[in-house]
Amino acid sequence: MTTRSESLPAATRRSILLLSFATFSSMTAQRICDPMLPELSREFAVSLAQAAQVVSVFAVVYGMAQLFYGPLGDRLGKFRIITFATIACSVGSVVAVLAQSLELLVAARVLVALGAAAIIPLSLAWVGDTVAHEQVQETLARVGLGTTLGMVGGQLVGGVFTDALGWRWAFGFMTLLFGVVGSLLYVDWRRQPVAPHAVAAGHAAVRPGFVAQALIIITGSWSRIVLLVAFVEGATGFGVLAMAASHLHRVLELPLSAAGAIVGLFGVGGMLYMAAARTLIQRFGQPGLAAVGACLLGACALVLGFTPYWMTTLVASPLAGFGFFMFHNTMQAHATQMAPAARGTAVSLFALALFMGQSVGVLLAASLVERIGSGAVIALGGGALAVTGLLFAQAMRWHDARVRQL
Asked: For 269, which of 284, 289, 318, 387 could close a Cys bridge (C-beta 3.0–4.6 Å)?
């Protein structure tokens, strides 16, 4: 029997695979500095909160760049922008390798963020433009697999290289990775035919202008809820995650490579969710996925924050990832449907909210670590996301009921 994914044209499947490589590279770049923070703090003689700028500033720039890439992708072509943004990330990674101060390293991270910002949101939007509606959910999961693997790769690469060879080698690896993936994307982009329906959709989307599109999106009551929840998710999920490797290193006295690998299991949990997504969606529905996933993450955050035994983290970390991606993929699905006529702009606004939340979360978590301890910060972030998931699940039920009445 032919599956829905197999019914996609071979060229489309090839492009989706390359986009998965690109999203892997982007997410690896986002998470690669997490296990480095203690070492960067020691090498540059700064506090952990100051060293965390390599994460928080990256997130701010990444988020703000969405205001630029969303409409640019709608106008000039999403795959084209993804291609050249990936190549640009390789250049920024070279600067990181050569950085002799924290300030220069932060500047290099800004360059990488400016490129990486285009990759994941425009990949999701490209899928929405290219793939038939009934195949979008499954295809998003395939592209999302690259993102999930990147969470594992970033933590693992950052920790292993920092421990074994030094943090600069991690950025050397990223230079090579972005260069190879960018080159493959360029070859594929040059072979792609112009899709008439995509061109027409793109022209229709850009006629009102970005400001008008953004106003249409953010003035919608449901869109505002999705964007607000994305902000909270970024702060409590991705933001607090940046502290996890440092917590395991400092409190449980694990090597950075081991701490990064354990936090990387978070992404393994995400991969397990991707494999079971179709069954879980049928079993729980979107409200159930959001509620159960967020609560599972909250419970695992308590374990990660307060367990005195490192062995328990081997179970808690992948379960936390499983729960988080139950919630996060539900959010992604809603983001791609906020404004189909301007999907690039809509998904970019979603990413803006998500990563602005991450920036706030990293800064807040880093400052709170000195006051209440890293374990309490991790547990607090997980609990906040659990409450958010329950509230969003109820909001989805109300929204679905209202849509059915229309």
From this structure: 318
Query: Using N-to-C axis directions, what is the helix angle for 133-164 and 102-130, rounded to 10°?
Result: 160
Nearest CA-CA partner of 106 in 153, 59, 173: 59
Report d(CA 335, CA 136) in Å as an integer. 13
Q: Which of 226, 203, 249, 182 is nearest to 334 (CA)?
A: 226
Distance CA 166, CA 67 (A): 35
Please give the average per-residue pLDDT across 20-26, as a whole number: 90
Digit-coded pLDDT (tens) for 88-145: 999 999 998 888 888 899 889 999 999 998 898 888 888 877 776 666 666 776 777 7
Among 151, 78, 75, 67, which Cα is nearest to 119's? 78
Total residues belonging to the chain: 406
The whole-model pTM stands at 0.71
Pick from 128, 114, 130, 81: nearest CA to 332: 128
Q: Phi and psi for 255 in degrees, rounded to 5?
A: -60, 155
CA distance 151 to 171: 16
DSSP letter at 195 equals -
316 phi/psi in degrees, rounded to 5: -65, -40
Asked if residues 26 and 5 have their Cβ atoms less than 8 Å apart, the reply is no
What is the percent of the chain where pLDDT is above 70?
A: 87
* Mean of per-residue pLDDT scores for the chain: 81
List Cα–Cα distances, 70 to 244, 268, 291, in angstroms: 31, 30, 30
